[in-house]
Design goal:
Elements lengths: L6 E5 L5 E10 L2 E9 L9 E2 L11 E12 H9 L3 E4 L4 H13 L8 H4 L1
Antiparallel strand pairs: 1-2, 1-6, 2-3, 3-5, 4-5
Length: about 120
């Protein structure tokens, strides 16, 4: 079962794992936002540090511009196919920071705002 605050990885075409946070739910769809390496020229609406989650090993940012929505079925299929894996969840404090960052990020697609309100 997938819930808000869960953390999953998703492999790209090069089989590199990227971390995604389940930041919201609307109906039967979940909003996923990923973390990427910190760059002072990129959106820093939400900066993450290693203490925020064990998978994060350096200063990172939430990449709101690449937010995606998907279904629980799709997430579970990806886990079963070894495309994704479920990690430990984030605490409510970190989840709140991610959601608040989405609402102030200019890169966050407007169509996803209802997921985090």
């Amino acid at each position: 079962m997938i819930k808000i605050g869960d953390v999953i990885t998703l492999k790209n075409n090069q089989q590199t794992e990227h971390i995604y946070f389940v930041a919201g739910k609307l109906g039967d769809r979940f909003l996923l936002v990923n973390a990427t390496s910190f760059d002072p020229l990129k959106d820093s609406s939400c900066i993450m540090r290693p203490l925020d989650h064990p998978f994060i090993r350096k200063k990172t940012i939430i990449n709101y511009g690449d937010a995606i929505d998907t279904t629980e079925t799709r997430i579970e299929q990806n886990i079963n196919l070894n495309i994704s894996r479920k990690l430990s969840s984030i605490d409510n404090k970190v989840l709140t920071r991610i959601r608040k960052g989405a609402l102030i990020s200019e890169a966050f697609p407007a169509k996803y705002r209802p997921y985090v309100r």
